[in-house]
């Protein structure tokens, strides 16, 4: 099919031929209005003519949104609410889905209870600490008594009023009381440290359960558009399950496939002319922004991304497009119809009234025309190969 449209520059019509066979990377001839000239024809053949020629590479592909991502679940539960539909515009952090999860509710309640209990245990009047503090007080009293008793027996022993065995028994009781107080103080300190750790751990656990609960409320990470929804209310959802496909509603790009044989001509910054059947009479301009070096072995093509530079199509996910990537622009080059070339680079010419085969040096070519870089002149008469 052949479509005529403006090139984006006032007063500059451009003729573009879009070839539907995406397996053939074809060059393209763009003719400006000021130099549109047909090959001179006569009954015996054609003469090469000079034209301003723009060579382009054919590519096919699809339109996709930027910031595209799949919304996934981070928790187990049943989908309770679906707050979006396909085609809806959404804002960043907007609530999209709500999951019902009794398990998460129970975990959060248990974590809150554990935190309250550990905080209560750390209070000065808590039963755990009160019992240990009472044991410390008792140990202090016993140590004081045993200390006095030991001192009394020392005086008696110096006065030969008691035996050595009685003195040693009093000394042993004093030593045991002192060690017991030290042990009770250590136990109290360790218990306080453990209770503080319990509070910290239980607080962390509560925060984790709150975050898990938030995971049951799924929000958007981007401002954009909903392209597809995968789950309905009542369905069971597990972590990692896909819920929806969202992406930018305004930032679009064309993902193109360029045949392996033409990939070496593609450079970042080259202009792209894009057409789609959805907009039959409209052409979009774009620019090559990224070239991917990995070959797709399935169709022997390379991926090329192009950003729209002017008007954009509506945000239809995966919209099929055909494109011509402008790879070179030449002023006033000699051309002949491609149908007059046979083999790879041979033509028949009229040489002093005789039909003679010669080889030419070809340049850019498209479905209809071939640039002649050597072998012919403007005065040559090229005969049909048939």
Automatic annotation (TrEMBL):
UniProt main location, coarse: other
CC annotations in GO: cell envelope; extrinsic component of membrane; macrolide transmembrane transporter complex
Gene Ontology annotations of biological process type: xenobiotic detoxification by transmembrane export across the plasma membrane
Annotated CusB-like beta-barrel domain residues: 255-310
Entry keywords, A to Z: Coiled coil
Top-level taxon of origin: Bacteria
SUPFAM superfamilies: HlyD-like secretion proteins
One Pfam family in the UniProt entry: Beta-barrel_RND_2
Name of protein: Efflux transporter, RND family, MFP subunit
Organism: Fibrisoma limi BUZ 3
